[in-house]
Amino acid sequence: MNGNTPYAGTPGVTQAGHRANADVPDLSPEQKESLRNSVAAIAARTRDFLPDEYVVGSQVSDDSNGPQAQVAVQPPVGHPVSAGFTPDAEDFDGDDLVSHEESEVARGLAASAALQVKQAMGDDITPTAR
Description:
The chain is α+β, with helices and mostly antiparallel strands.
């Protein structure tokens, strides 16, 4: 049964548990720059939705599964939230490697970060207005 899985390996070519080099997408320098720009735009848009106390960062890296992109938000209190992307080099035209709408992802990250603060603060805060 192990021979039917994509991670069983090909004898003499690919070790079990590893992906074949042909399966890992490789981006051109222009495509990597486009990915960085897309992720930086999402991070900038997320910063627009949040006060300055929230720290927003982005990262693009290569690992064994190919290029990975991530935008993360560290709220002033509570747990950090993040959104990760794995672009598929076959499905893009050269400009848009992140298939999600930038504003939608930014709003979701901002809302999740605000919820983390609310959950961390609990009901101990007296509202200033009704």
